[in-house]
Amino acid sequence: MYHEEVANMLKLLGDKTRLMIISILNETDCCVCELVDILQMSQPAISQHLRKLKDNGLVKETKKAQWVFYSLNKQHEFYALVQSIFSHLPDQKEHIHRLEEKGIRIHCK
Amino acid sequence: MYHEEVANMLKLLGDKTRLMIISILNETDCCVCELVDILQMSQPAISQHLRKLKDNGLVKETKKAQWVFYSLNKQHEFYALVQSIFSHLPDQKEHIHRLEEKGIRIHCK
DNA sequence: TTTTTACATAAGTATATACTTATATAATGA
DNA sequence: TCATTATATAAGTATATACTTATGTAAAAA
What we know:
2 copies of one chain form a homodimer. By secondary structure, the first copy, chain A, is of the alpha+beta class. The first copy, chain A, has a single domain (2-102), classed as Winged helix-like DNA-binding domain superfamily/Winged helix DNA-binding domain (Arc Repressor Mutant, subunit A). Chain A contains 6 helices and 3 strands; from the N terminus they run ααβααββαα. The longest helix of chain A has 13 residues, at 43-55. The radius of gyration of chain A is 14 Å and the shape is globular. The A-B interface holds A 1-4, 6-16, 18-20, 23, 78, 80-81, 84-85, 87-90 and B 1-4, 6-16, 18-20, 23, 78, 80-81, 84-85, 87-90. Chain A binds a DNA duplex through helix 4.
């Protein structure tokens, strides 16, 4: 049933840490250590949330050198739904700017 | 933090039974026994979901004779967010029509 | 080659959640 | 008045969830 799939998607987004992760990835791709720095949570906690998001297909990962970069999967069935939720949330640019200013943003070709 | 409030709202909607209840109430006000009939679940289960929705302010209740009618609270802070989620879901008119046809729709002034 | 950094994962734990069954209440109807 | 109907709620239970700590792995750096 369609409602069940949507309910599962909302449950996935219905956690403040995951909602923040997705909001940040909506600004720019990030590696795990950047998310750990922004969200001030343990690395395993962040990794476990990322795994849930990845298992659901909402995010993709790309290995680059020692880092794993996560990004939103724009091909996801519910990407439009997720974007309409974001339209009701403030953007998260400040977190990215703060990383840049602190000089700890990971840039990788 | 705003993200936390939105996450809590999404968690509330992130249950297929509650999402269905809200979708149905988006069509028309209903009393508990109609929701029990539509959703084919036990009355206490439905009542408990309704309580969660009411505690959060998403629905309102009105007593009429022996029935308690529930309706969406259009004044809710996140009503617009909820509506944008509905725009990604099929409508639930068929359930209401079925009740009418079966002659078990509760009409009350 | 050894250490460090970045990340994943396993195991354990505390809490939350969604039901069930049983029971209480209040309005209606016989 | 007594039975029925509509609803709420309490208590119990099974499962899910979100962390923690500990540990493993792979790449980079020293």
